[in-house]
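Revision sheet: structure tokens.
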Amino acid sequence: MPGLSDTLVFVPAWNEEESLPAVLDELGRELPQADVLVVDDGSTDRTAEVARVHGAEVISFGANRGLPAGIAAGYGYALEHHYAFCGRVDADGQHPVGELVRLLERVRSGASDVAVGSRFASGDGFAAYRYRPTAARRFGTAVLRRSMKVALRRPFLDATSGMYAANAKALPILARAYTSEAPEVQGLLRLQEAGMRIEEIPVDMRPRASGESKLQGKKAVMVVFTIAATLLAFVRWRRG
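Predicted:
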């Protein structure tokens, strides 16, 4: 059951038994006051068991439903249990919890409704080119940045980042079911239309702790097309 904290941090996870313990241990050290939820997306390994052993609440899907469902479930849990603040980090170890603490502080201070950790934003001691993606990812990122600028009417450098902090006002928006395989992008569009204050904060991220990215090859290409379709549909809807 949820504890007495006003803050929930959730971790979407699919077959992440190797990297998940370190993520949960880091959350316990850096954010001991927060409740932790693992959304187990139909894993076939020991992800759910590992999460429970490390003291996390667990939602387990009976089958793999994909990241959009996992994200909606995490925010939905925070909304249902009346948390004032909600954070999200990935299960692969890429998101330092110390950076999430900074995002939560921005939201707690009232500076923003949603703070997004950005690999590409600079300033405050963060170099502009500290993160160097592959050539294919650079191309996809460039296309996405231009598209997001049109859709949001403002620059947004890391629209697919999964490191988030949000307040209670944003939770009903982020908890809605996603119809796109680019849930972060769709979420940003919804937040913008709802008048939420979104802040992109420069952060450092790490290489994933184990395994390989689930977005490679043809799947990565399809995600780029999905993002483009999501943005195009949004722009058409707004103009209509």
